Amino acid sequence: MSTSSPTRPFYQRIYSNVWYLFVGNTLANVAMFVSNMLIARTLGVEDFGIVSFLLGIVNVTIVAIDFGLSTAATKRIAEERGRGSNDIKLRTLIRSFQRTICLTGIAGAVACGCLVAFAPLSLLEGFKIADSWLLGLWVLVPTITKGIIAVFNGFEDMRFTLIGLLMLEPLKLAMLLVLLFSGAMTLQALFLIWGWTLLFALIIIVLIGRRFLDKRVGTIPSRPWRFSDITGRLHESIAYLMPFIGITIMPGLVALILGIVSTKTEIAWFAASASLASMSFLVLEPVAKTLLSAFTHRFARSGQAIAPSEGAQLLRMLSLVNVCVLLGYLLFGSLIIRWTYGGEFELAISVVMILAAVNFFESFRLGVDP
What tens digit of pLDDT does each residue of 108-125 get? Predict the structure, then answer.
């Protein structure tokens, strides 16, 4: 099997992969935003606060159990491809990462379900223990999906990453619309239909990932589980956890803290503002993920690292785009939040302004001081 990259020029491949990721991330984030907006408008502020608190638990768990594994998998696969490693070595590496991610996903799903079912939190009074397995699926499916997408990214084939991104949030939005149009929208029905939707998505994404690997490296044979493989992958991935944990875990962590010390309404306000501010990362994330695999593969193959001029130009371009988006929130944030979430959430605009200002100055710093 051939593991070499397509013969397209290096930067042409980067541009096309950034485009695929941008489309996928945009559709996923817009679907998530619209889902939040519909839930808030349909169920009201307090029920939306409960959903936001549960999603905060789920998101914190996903980031914690990912442990940098998805980023490490992408980088290692790109490295081995650049070094011209044979299919057997690639198959062994991928199998090791897949098993580790699967185990962490199961552990996170169980932990999340137990926390929701047994934690003495007044916010979750009346939440049935039988529903906790649904929250477990909310953790397990995205974790495994991230692991499969990491393989796609490592092979620099973001067309499949686009498919993987479309299997989660857009599909959940479609099922939410089914509930709304059928008149069966309740908090309980939402948990149930999203749980089964994620289970369906998991089956599809696993089948797609298996077919992808069959074509790229051949069938991955089963091999005995080795504890050293799992600990080795975890040890390798910890370096990739810390640079991203602050950005990815903070909104969920704040929602989780608010759920313990504050009210459902305040949780809902923060969740609404955070969903608006998160749209500013639609450009940065696709570029970062594409460049990780592309430049890792190029460096492993030829020893050519990214030039300082390339890095400076890229940072200025990204900061300019991000600053324009965030200025739009500062100028029109109040109007946007009234149009989307409704007048009940207007007080959340103060949080939007704070988040937008922080991101603005960070983007400005990157742009002028690369």
Answer: 888 888 877 776 666 666
> Distance between CA 334 and CA 343 in Å, rounded?
10
Give dist(CA 54, CA 36) in Å, integer.
13
CA distances from 30 to 8, 148, 269, 318 (A): 31, 22, 18, 20
Q: Which three-class secondary structure state does DSSP give residue 183? A: coil
| Residue among 275, 282, 278, 310 at smallest CA distance from 294 | 310
pLDDT tens digits, residue range 304-322? 666 556 666 666 666 676 6
On whether the CB atoms of residues 319 and 47 are closer than 8 A, the answer is no
CA separation for the pair 240, 67 (Å, rounded): 8
For residues 55-87, b (16+ Cβ closer than 10 Å) or e, as one string?
Answer: bbbbbbbbbbbbbbbbbbbbbbbbbbbbeebee
Does residue 156 come out as left (phi exceeding 0), alpha (psi in the -120 to 50 range) or beta? left
Using DSSP's 3-state secondary structure scheme, residue 278 falls into helix
Asked if 206 and 224 count as a contact pair (C-beta separation under 8 A), the reply is no
**Rounded alpha-carbon distances, angstroms, from residue 310 to 15, 139, 317:** 14, 37, 11
- Residues 22-33, buried b or exposed e (16+ Cβ, 10 A)? bebbebbbebbb
Angle formed by the axes of helices 45-66 and 132-154, to 10°? 50
Tell me how crowded residue 35 is: count the other CB atoms within 10 A of its CB: 22
SS3 at position 303: coil
Check: CB of residue 27 under 8 Å from CB of residue 166. yes
CA distance linking residue 33 with residue 26, whole number of Å? 10
State the pTM of this model: 0.76
> What is the distance between the alpha carbons of residues 101 and 148, in angstroms, rounded to a whole number?
9
- Give the end-to-end CA distance of the chain in Å, rounded to a whole number: 41
> What is the DSSP secondary-structure string of 97-153?
HHHHHHHHHHHHHHHHHHHHHH---GGGTT--GGGHHHHHHHHHHHHHHHHHHHHHH
Q: How many residues does the chain have?
A: 370
Q: Coil, strand, or helix at residue 156?
A: coil
Cα 240 to chain centroid, rounded: 15
In whole angstroms, what is the distance from residue 42 CA to residue 342 CA?
A: 11
